[in-house]
Amino acid sequence: MVSDQEPLRFEVPDTLDGVRLDRALAGWVDEVSRGRVTSWIKSGAVQVEAHRGEKIKGAHRGVKPSLKLRTGQVVYCVPPPAPEIKLTPQSIPFEVMYQDDDLAVIEKPAGVIVHPGAGQPDQTLVNGLLHRFNKLSPVGLPHRPGVVHRLDRDTTGLLMVALTERAHHHLSAQLVERTVTRRYLALAWRPPEGAEGSIETFYGRHPNHRIKFTGTRREGKRACTHWRVLERLGPCGLLELRLETGRTHQIRVHMSEAGSPLLADQLYGIRRRIERPPELRQLGYELGLSRHALHAAHLGFQHPLTGESLEFDSPLPEPFSNALRALREIYGHNPEVL
Q1: Are 17 and 69 contacting, i.e. CB atoms less than 8 angstroms apart?
Q2: pTM (2 decimals)?
Q3: 3-42 pLDDT, tens digit each
């Protein structure tokens, strides 16, 4: 995400011709809600330039969130400072898998947001990291010290934490160079046909639902997920997923849009279309799952100072393992690929 003071400039493509300004801007700027974008527009922080370089009448005060954009127009935005977030150490439960002077590897529990934001000022993993460790890397936005990569609120599993600035830069570079190994385990409805495959799409915010993302865009950031079926369990499957890119909600979106949503995924798993099997709405909850079945099970990277290859594995959390055991009892243990 860009910093709040970084000027933004966007040229309207053909695919956004006729789209509202607030909706388009929220799609361009990751991790910013449509409500916050609307406040930017109303405060005069957004201008729209016509085709010929002329400012639309009342550009500073008259541009409205409902303005319909046209192909070729240019949108300028200087986001105002975000509301100040005061970080305070708080006792948040999590397990430490590894720690030295430069970094730590921790297991994130379900239900915990990684860092504070507009809707969650405290009680986040960052507050817990401040409570547990004496220092965190200052790299990044002020409310994200030590955060190298993230997991969704209800996704469990392994995370790298940078304790020093030099470690943070090195670990971030490994993510960019795609040398970090991240493997996830998931329970999905109607697993894909075949033993393994890949999903590669353009990726960005959903045009109609600001809290959702989609891989059906015609342009945007590249997103790539590699999947492998480990077991077929009746209508479900145990999948191993490997991230090549790390977009927000990427695994959940790719699997849902491929027809294999994760069990108990309240955001991407529930389908409203009447022809969808009604079991999709219940499957997962009846197995004791109250959150989507996704776990960051393996993490591998190079130590930023010693160069040593570090590999970590995390056991399935109890709700996930209980659901898997119940499926095996019903349908038998049928490994597809092991």
Answers
A1: yes
A2: 0.73
A3: 445 567 778 877 678 888 887 887 676 555 567 778 888 8
Are the C-beta atoms of 10 and 28 separated by less than 8 Å?
A: yes
Determine the residue type at 289: L
Question: What order do you get walking across the sheet with 74-77 strand by strand?
Answer: 8-11, 74-77, 46-49
What φ, ψ does residue 253 adopt, rounded to 5°?
-70, -50
What would the two tokens of residue 144 be?
């994200």
Element (H, E) at 201: strand 196-205
Which residue reads 């095996």 in tokens? 328
- Token readout for 269 is 């798993």
Structure tokens at 257: 């849009």
The identity of residue 115, as a single letter, is: H
**Contact by Cβ (8 Å): 184, 197:** no
- The region that residue 230 occupies, defined by phi over 0 for left and psi between -120 and 50 for alpha, beta otherwise, is alpha
What pLDDT was estimated at residue 61?
46
Residue 117 to residue 127: CA distance in whole angstroms: 12
What's the token pair of residue 327?
């499926």
Q: Assess contact for 23 and 86: CB atoms under 8 A.
A: no
> Could you tell me which residues are beta bridge partners of residue 335?
231
Catalytic hit among 22, 102, 152, 154: 152
Q: Is the pLDDT of residue 242 over 60?
A: yes
The sign of the torsion formed by the CA atoms of 250, 252, 257, 258 equals positive
Model pLDDT for residues 144-162, shown as the tens digit of each residue: 899 999 999 999 999 999 9
SS3 content of the chain, % helix, strand, coil (to 5): 20, 30, 50
Q: Which residue has the tokens 């105002």?
A: 80
Return the axis-axis angle of helices 34-42 and 21-28, rounded to nearest 10°.
120
pLDDT in tens, 255-302: 999 999 999 888 888 554 444 455 555 567 678 888 899 999 999 999
Beta bridge mates, 229: 239
Q: State yes or no: is 102 an active-site residue.
A: no
**Rounded distance between C-alpha atoms, residue 336 and residue 328, angstroms:** 13
Concatenate the DSSP letters of all residues of 197-243 into one string. Answer: EEEEEEEEE-SS-TT-EEEEESSSEEEEEEEEEEEEETTEEEEEEEE
Residue tagged 């960005």 (tokens): 204
